[in-house]
Amino acid sequence: MKIIVGLGNPGEQYNKTRHNVGFLALDLLLGDVQWQNNKKFKALTYEAGDTIYIKPQTFMNNSGQAVRAILDYYGLLPKKLFFKVKDSDLSDTLTIIHDDLDIEFGKYKIASDSRSAGHNGVQSIINHLKTKNFKRVRLGIKTELKERMPAEKFVLGHFSETELQTIKDLINNLKNQV
After folding, report:
1. What is the structure's pLDDT at 81?
2. I want to staple 121 with a disulfide (CB 3.0 to 4.6 A). Which of 11, 53, 60, 81 is the partner?
3. Distances from the Cα of 138 to the Cαs of 92, 153, 177, in angstroms?
4. What are the tens digits of pLDDT across the range 141-152?
5. Overall number of domains in the chain
């Protein structure tokens, strides 16, 4: 089983913002699908074969709650007796798609077993799972505009139509790697 999580914030006001590029990526990868509001996981979910796609509804900084609930439910966190194993290797099971302020807009990097680099959503997942060893698809959102405003304001800014087209092209190129 594979779990693919797109990070973002719930609510119409956050649609098409830089911080919600993880949600946008799932929408572009999957097309028009029927998301299920799963209150038990605090997430929107969509199942396709042995893959579950997740949009946490906990707000970005608490994404780890939803991810942990799903991995616990499906028994995907390795255990030793009754305790979860710290630093488990989840890189074949869990993929997180998120924005990255340090990567130029329109570029991406795929990594695993790396620190959060200040991304609060990723840090929440690391804290809840007690491991950083999962696959991350880091989508670049850095532009010259970033240098002219606080990061918190920049990530909550909306993509222009031209930028949205670039994101669509980027996600199309990533389809076979997620």
Report:
1. 47
2. 60
3. 17, 19, 12
4. 999 888 888 888
5. 1
